[in-house]
Amino acid sequence: MKLLKPENALIEELLATIRDKNTPYYVFREDLERLGELLIIEALKELKLKEKTVETPVAPAKVKTVSEEVVFIAILRAGLSLLPAALRVFPKGRLGFIGTYRNEETLQPVNYYVKFPLLKSARYVLLDPMLAMGGTAEQAVKVLLEKGIEENNITFISIVSAPEGIRRLEKFRGLTIITASVDEKLNGNGYIVPGLGDAGDRFCGTENVEVVESHGV
């Protein structure tokens, strides 16, 4: 497994804003997306290229364009927060979704929704702003592997990660994890410390209101 933590002054500035509990949800949303863009650029900077010739207003020019397919997969619900950023960086990307919830009795992740294009040579980018215990991330990677996607073609992007979650994914030797921060630990409730709270709730503006919730079967 490869772990990348880009060093960037802009990343640190944006992290400071989204960690602050007093940041309004609409500012949190905007800065989370901006931070996501920086990490997604990092994930895609080594895409394969092909050469072609175009006509500039002055003369022909040899240029390079991306020759690989890219599939962005949002891990529901919080992963949806990074989709706008992903499509701004690479508008040609295809989209997929993996919905998982934790069984309260077994504490094991259960898939309730899985849909994504199957392109075995594509670059798959899993999106989830928080890598905490790692169960949901592990489940998502397994879903791709079961469909024949190679580990080397899978990148997991998170904004904030816990050491426990990273260790859980170490078994996937070809996987790449890109994160803005590796935080200290998980607390007794499974929250990342210091973290930034519940990214999904803060992005949606639902952290202080009642939410109706129902899981599929």
From TrEMBL:
GO terms for biological process: UMP salvage; uracil salvage. Residues 7-206 form the Phosphoribosyltransferase domain. It catalyses: UMP + diphosphate = 5-phospho-alpha-D-ribose 1-diphosphate + uracil. One of its GO terms (molecular function) is GTP binding. Belongs to the UPRTase family. Catalyzes the conversion of uracil and 5-phospho-alpha-D-ribose 1-diphosphate (PRPP) to UMP and diphosphate. This is Uracil phosphoribosyltransferase. It comes from Phorcysia thermohydrogeniphila. The lineage of its organism: Bacteria, Pseudomonadati, Aquificota, Aquificia, Desulfurobacteriales.
